[in-house]
Structure formats: C-alpha cells, structure tokens
Specification:
The protein has 158 residues and is an alpha+beta fold. 32% of the residues lie in helices and 30% in strands.
C-alpha cells in the first residue's frame, strides 16, 4: 500500500469520506478541512483514496480542546486529529499503515510520542480496540463542550 501527502486536488473526495463518518469524526466544511491541512504536521492519504490521516504536533497552535489538552501536558508529540478509512477498506491494515507512516515521520522529526482521543460517548468500540491493540494507553478523559462527546485521551511512545 502506498501513502502520500494530501494535495488540494484530494479535498473534495476527502471531505465526502470524512463527512460520511461524521459520527466517528466530526463533520467538516471544505474551508474547515483546508484549514486543518494548513496547520497539519502530517496530512497523508492512501494512493487509492480509501483512507487518510491528519496529525498536528506540539508546535502547532491548539486546534481545538483535544489537541490543547495534549499541548498543556506533553512537550513533544504527534497528535492524530483524524483517521478515516472507507468501509470497504476496513480490516485490511490500512489504518495501521497510516499510523506506521506517521510514526516514521514523527521519528524523523525527533518526536517519540503519538497521541489521540477516542470517543467514549457516543462509544466507538472499534476505534478503542484498534488503539489498544497498537499499544495506546489511556491518559485522561474529557467532555468536548462543542458537541458533548466524551473522549478518552490516549498515548503511545514510539
């Protein structure tokens, strides 16, 4: 599987893929997605367009309360803002490949920690199982006042 940087030409398809999974990752407008990409530490897509990942790092100005939670607690990290995999591509190692790709980018930048959040309410048991299988450990919880979702913060040294 090949992974590359996201380009402006990818935005319409990414927006559709993201918003089809709005319950798991918050829905975005085209301008909001473009804004995330402008601040991204890493913005990666599979060459078949079936999955993507957007991450920020410790130097990125806080991009919402979840990213801010980590900036207040960790010195160096790569924060996975969103990873979206099309339903037909799930269970094939695509998300793991995106995480491995991000880990390589982070290590090259001397960052040795991956962090993220997973929804507890509404529950996302598939995401929780995936992150636990990859070795992520819980490190906190919060309720996002913007949407009422309760999340568990997770971290994984790399």
């Amino acid at each position: 599987m090949e992974i590359r940087n996201i380009t402006a030409a990818d935005i319409p398809a990414l927006l559709a893929l993201n918003n089809a999974e709005a319950e798991r990752v918050n829905a975005l407008t085209e301008s909001a997605l473009a804004g995330l990409l402008n601040f991204a530490f890493a913005a990666r897509i599979t060459t078949d367009g079936q999955a993507f990942l957007i991450a920020f790092d410790h130097a990125t100005p806080p991009q919402g309360p979840n990213h801010a939670w980590f900036t207040a607690r960790e010195s160096y990290f790569a924060y996975i803002d969103r990873v979206v995999v099309a339903p037909g591509a799930r269970g094939k190692g695509v998300a793991r490949a995106l995480y491995d790709d991000l880990a390589k980018i982070a290590k090259a930048e001397m960052t040795n920690l991956l962090v993220c959040e997973v929804n507890l309410d509404p529950p996302n048991p598939e995401s929780m199982a995936f992150h636990e299988k990859l070795g992520f450990k819980a490190c906190g919880e919060a309720v996002d006042r913007r949407n009422g979702k309760r999340v568990q913060y997770m971290r994984k040294p790399i």
